[in-house]
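Re: the request from the purification team.
They wanted to know what the chain is likely to look like in 3D before they choose a buffer screen. I agreed to run a prediction and write the result into the notebook, where they can find it.
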Amino acid sequence: MRNNGGFDSDASMRQVDAVARSLRQTAERAQQIEQAATRLAGAGTEHAAGVDHARGAIESILASIEETATASEQLTRSQSGVAGGARDLNQALETSASGLQEVTASVVAVRKDAELLAKSADATASTLEETARSIKGMSLNAAQLGSASQQLAAAATETSASVNDAAARGAEAAAMIEEVAATVEEMSAG
């Protein structure tokens, strides 16, 4: 049905109302997205703090392992000295008297045990060195993870600002449409 201006004012009003409703819903969704982005940024910051704390703990563990490795190396050198001393003692006993064969056999057994212990200490020192290298790698990974978390928090903050801007523009557009609807209504009534 056509009115004075050639427009169906009821249909136009319904369309304007529908557009205004849609813009209000968009503005509400934008506010919800902004709130979610703010929560995400807060979680990213907490995660970065946790990574920093973990990095400190790993560095402390690494320092302890390095100290242990140093002590193990010193122990290995000491045990090598003990093994050398046992060999010297064995040679002295062999040259002293044939009547001390039982003592010599005992010293030989001690020498073998000392050599096995020295080999075991060498293997332990190697394992500790490998562990220290692995922990250094983990510390580097933790630092990279902390950096990525900070970048994620910055991106979430930027997204929140963009959503706020879009929500403000949507609200302005809805207000303008409502003004146009009022003007159309006045024109159709007049």
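For the purification team: DSSP finds two helices and no strands in the chain.
Please add any questions underneath this entry.
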